[in-house]
Specification:
single chain; 7 helices; Glutathione S-transferase Yfyf (Class Pi), Chain A, domain 2; Glutaredoxin; globular; alpha+beta; 4 strands
């Protein structure tokens, strides 16, 4: 049995779930609240971070180690394909969303709107949310620019870059914070991503007490 310890609003966890679905790797999900991790989880990953993959007595902790393991152990379909330069570009874009987007958008918007609420019941900081939404515009412009030139973010083929970006954007899309009509190329690209069979379980996710935006499950917006 393959067990994935995750949380629904973690983009890194969504990324792994989409990747496993693309590769048709069946798994059982166990949810951990990232703001209230159990003592058992801390024994699995001393860093205290999700996701964690468990199978056959083995534990792989962390976003990047899990993605590399899945790509090496389940090579088809290849999500890190192409020549070394092409793979470097895919990795660059993965890092862009897992690091830059996460720090400049996710932590401000989702951190204030969702995580703060469950962590301590505090009121969200509207200034931080505004800053995150302003940063979001810059990232959407970049996606729009990339997808004006290519079918997918890193080129003509679907890759781990699209999985990673789609995972991050899906949380913001749930909250209704993306003005897709202002970014036509990005909208077309995202409609292709969320129409993939691997994305369908993600679209069934819910956040307690928060209703998904009207377009979240709409494959055609």
């Amino acid at each position: 049995m393959v067990l994935l310890v995750h949380h629904t609003i973690s983009p890194q966890c969504r990324k792994i779930r989409i990747m496993m679905a693309e590769k048709k790797v069946l798994c059982v999900l166990r949810e951990e609240e990232p703001w209230r991790l159990s003592s058992d989880f801390k024994k699995l990953n001393l860093a205290g971070e999700l996701p964690v993959l468990i199978f056959d007595g083995h534990v792989i902790a962390g976003n990047y180690p899990i993605t590399e393991y899945l790509e090496e152990h389940y090579p088809l379909p290849a999500l890190l394909g192409g020549q070394h330069i092409e793979r470097a570009e895919i990795r660059r874009l993965c890092d862009w969303f897992d690091q830059k987007f996460y720090k400049e958008v996710y932590q401000y918007v989702v951190g204030e709107k969702v995580i703060r609420r469950f962590q301590n019941g505090g009121a969200p900081d509207s200034l931080l949310i505004k800053a995150g939404l302003n940063n979001l515009k810059y990232h959407l412009e970049y996606i729009d620019w990339l997808t004006e030139r290519n079918n997918y973010l890193a080129g003509s083929l679907f890759s781990l870059a699209d999985v990673t970006a789609g995972a991050h954007l899906s949380v913001l899309d749930y909250l209704g914070d993306i003005d897709w009509e202002s970014y036509k190329n990005a909208k077309l690209w995202y409609s292709k991503i969320k129409s993939r069979p691997s994305f369908q379980d993600i679209l069934k996710d819910t956040i307690k007490g928060i209703t998904a935006s009207k377009c979240y499950k709409d494959l055609d917006f």
